[in-house]
Design brief:
Elements: E1 4-5, H1 20-29, E2 34-40, H2 50-55, H3 67-80, E3 86-93, H4 100-107, E4 112-115, E5 119-122, E6 125-128, H5 138-150, E7 156-157, H6 178-193, E8 197-201, H7 203-210, H8 223-229, E9 237-240, H9 252-264
Parallel strand pairs: 1-2, 2-3, 3-4, 4-7, 7-8, 8-9
Antiparallel strand pairs: 5-6
Helix pairs in contact: 5-6, 6-8
Length: about 280
């Protein structure tokens, strides 16, 4: 059983359940040593067209006027439960190259940042990484991930293999082809160069079940990606529950991902150090 989790969402993102204290109390009940609260950071409407904003579900993220309340609740829990658990404040943000200053300002307000690439800009268009990534534009996803890691403010690239959710090869099939292999190595090697953790994400199993995929065909974590990752002994790998409900902190999906990593012979780091 893992005793720490650094990828946790609360009600402010509008698609998770539970407040900050609900997660802290659940973590204490589970005997956790550390927990990071990392709700989805605001995405400003000015970052893209209104159509792109809607298409990428950006309305689901926290609003700017909630940030102070969110951080205040984390601070109060840090003070209230300091003798029981270590609590870190954080955000999960996206990455658009032209919004680097916005992410830097967010970093100054919290203990650490996760970056998750749910959309990326490619050839002037914002692509949804769940449904619009294929062999022709995968480099847009990879470039966004690498530029984010090179910025020096992100501690973890969460669900780095999310691009495989709906990836299509040259034949229109969801297959881990040579393009995907090359992309995976670029991401992994950039994480090592920039001292960034990569996360095996347990929430991908919930999405796998939600979209009716076979239990042996996970949308992510994607077996071939992590098969490559295990070759890199210097790579820092953690497991994140990507909790959207306090019960997600240690559920069957987390247990399955732990077994997945063990079967692959991946060394999982239980404690995350804040490097950025």
């Amino acid at each position: 059983m893992i005793k720490n989790n650094y990828h946790t969402h609360v009600k402010y993102c509008n698609h998770a359940k539970g407040d900050v204290e609900d997660y802290v109390l659940k973590a204490i009940e589970l005997g956790f040593n550390e927990i990071g609260i990392t709700d989805h950071a605001p995405i400003l409407e000015s970052f893209m067209t209104s159509e792109e904003y809607k298409h990428n579900w950006c309305h689901e993220n926290m609003k700017m006027d909630i940030v102070i309340e969110y951080l205040d609740k984390i601070k109060k829990c840090q003070e209230k439960y300091s003798d029981k658990i270590k609590i870190y404040s954080g955000f999960e943000t996206e990455y658009l190259d032209e919004e680097k200053q916005f992410y830097k300002e967010l970093r100054n307000r919290v203990d650490y940042l996760n970056v998750g690439i749910h959309y990326c800009r490619y050839n002037g268009k914002v692509l949804n990484c769940y449904s619009e990534i294929d062999y022709k534009n995968l480099e847009g996803y990879v470039d966004a991930a690498i530029k984010a890691m090179e910025l020096g403010i992100f501690n973890t690239l969460v669900h780095p293999d999310l691009f495989m959710f709906g990836y299509k090869n040259i034949n229109g099939e969801r297959s881990f082809d040579d393009v995907a292999r090359s992309a995976s190595r670029r991401i992994i090697e950039a994480a090592i160069r920039n001292n960034v953790y990569l996360e095996i994400n347990a929430n991908g199993l919930k999405n796998t079940k939600k979209y009716g995929k076979d239990e042996n065909d996970w949308l992510y974590p994607y077996y071939e990606f992590w098969q490559i990752a295990r070759e890199y002994k210097e790579l820092k790998i953690i497991i994140g529950s990507d909790a959207h409900n306090p019960e997600d902190l240690y559920n069957d999906n987390v247990k399955a991902v732990l077994k997945f990593a063990e079967a692959l012979g991946i060394k999982v780091l239980e404690k995350m150090e804040i490097n950025h």
